[in-house]
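Pipeline run #58 for the internal structure catalog. This entry was flagged by the ingest filter as a single-chain record with no existing model, so it goes straight to prediction. Upstream metadata was stripped on purpose; only the residue string is passed forward. Reviewer on rotation: M.T. Logging verbosity set to normal.
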Amino acid sequence: MSDPERPGITRREAVLRLASTAAAAAAVGVGVAVFHDRRLVTAAAAAIPDWRVPIASRPPAAAARGADPAANVRRAVAALGGVGRFVRPGESVLIKPNVGWDRLPEQAADTDPAVVAELVRLCRDAGARRVVVADLSCNDPRRCFASSGIAAAAGAAGAEVLDARRLRLTPAALAGLAQGLEVVEELLQADRVINVPVVKHHSLSGVTIGMKNWFGVLGPGRNRLHQEIDRAVAELGATFRPTLTLVDATRILAANGPVGGSLADVRAVGAVLAATDPVLADAWGASLLGRRPATLGFIAQAEQRGLGRADLALVQELGTA
């Protein structure tokens, strides 16, 4: 049997090459060994930063309601002390919306473009030197970013918009079920990270909001995490510690998620929540879908890990503007 990329190589030579790759990987400890230009290259697994900033004397979450998504973003973030408490001049920011699907904003399968764009403007106003909007889509990335309206809106607001065609993947020090997967390199290079999920029903986890949104920074093989979805989501919540979670509930996908498609499954809520507690953020979003947080396995596991509290009484409701 011959190697289709290099005619003439024997089966024995191929086996020996694989064996040498494995030995090299073992020799460097935590890392990945790959062939590049017929040379063996080892890449150490990068550490996952903690992007949080200490926030005192503020509520862990605030929800704003009204017809204008951009105004809801401003009010919710202001209640937590303003974007300047999270983003400082000269820092780079990565904004991670949900841009998984080739859907229009009205179908509520992706984060609302007005929410993303306003967050970009706030970060720019705070003096961020670079604002990146990025996600690894499930459908064709060009169509996802175009149909969702995020490419145009975020770009016009001053962001560098990166879909899967422009994102780089790198080995990362992931634990648990995600061990061995690659992560978006631009995420690891950012000074601050803001998670911006949309509230949706999910056929496996019940709901998909903030912690589940981290699937979109993982490389090939992430589908295996669906086998133990609650554990996987809680582990991702423990791994990725964002500066801020901004939950988009402008429209929510109440059924047939996460892909959706029918406008009959969409419900207009007109709300945005800003949170420093990712568990509380998911609990609030779940409540909009009529789900009690205590009944969702990944929220219970996240609480057990000490990642936050699913106590909705902690949310400061700002009311309707």
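catalog note: Confidence is low (pLDDT under 50) at residues 1-42.
catalog note: The CA atoms of residues 92 and 204 lie 34 Å apart.
status: ready for reviewer M.T.
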